[in-house]
Structures are given as structure tokens and as C-alpha cells.
Amino acid sequence: MSTSAVEVSGEKVKAIWDKRLIEIFCNICIKEILKGNRPGKAYSQRQLKNRWDALKKEWNAWKKLKGKDTVLG
Questions:
Q1: What does the domain layout of the chain look like in residue ranges?
Q2: Which residue of 1, 28, 59, 72 shows the fewest CB atoms closer than 10 Å?
Q3: Are the C-beta atoms of 47 and 6 separated by less than 8 Å?
Q4: pLDDT for 7-44, tens place per residue?
Q5: Distance CA 36, CA 33 (A)
Q6: CA distances from 66 to 16, 23, 52, 69 (A)
Q7: 3-state class of 66 per DSSP?
Q8: What is the per-residue pLDDT for 8?
Q9: Angle at CA 28, nearest 5°, toward 60 and 31?
């Protein structure tokens, strides 16, 4: 799973994304986009963008595999 680090009090701290946090992140993004706002600042903007990009890649890979799954029969 992809993570990135943010500096806190001079130390780098990794953001750890589990399934629950991914679901919360996606729900927040959807709600905020529908309201015309950006998500909150619990993570840095770079961390959010990195996570969004990683999820997008995973989604595209899943869609590609899912499309070929029926061929296995």
C-alpha cells in the first residue's frame, strides 16, 4: 500500500492508509466535492493527492482485471 511522509516537529511521520481510512477519505472527497469544497487538512495536500493517484491506479488495474475475469470461465 502506498504511503507518504509529512514532517511533524522536525520528524518525518508516515501516513498509514488502511481500508477504513480509504473509505472515509473517498466519502469525504465525494461530500466535499458535491458541496463545492475541498477535503479537510487531516493529511497534507500532497498526501491526499498521492493517495488519490494511487487509488486511481488501483481502480484502473482492478477494472482491467475484472473485464478479463469472465474469460477464465
A1: 5-72
A2: 72
A3: yes
A4: 667 777 777 888 998 899 889 888 887 887 765 556 77
A5: 5
A6: 27, 20, 21, 5
A7: helix
A8: 65
A9: 100
Question: Phi then psi for 53, rounded to 5 degrees?
Answer: -65, -40
Half-sphere exposure of 23 (CA within 13 A, CB side): 3
d(CA 26, CA 5) in angstroms, rounded, equals: 20
73 has pLDDT over 50: no
Q: Which three cell numbers stand for residue 10?
A: 522536525
CA proximity to 40, closest of 51, 52, 53, 29: 29
Cβ neighbours, 10 Å, residue 59: 10
End-to-end, the C-alpha distance of the chain in Å comes to 30
Q: pTM higher than 0.70, yes or no?
A: no
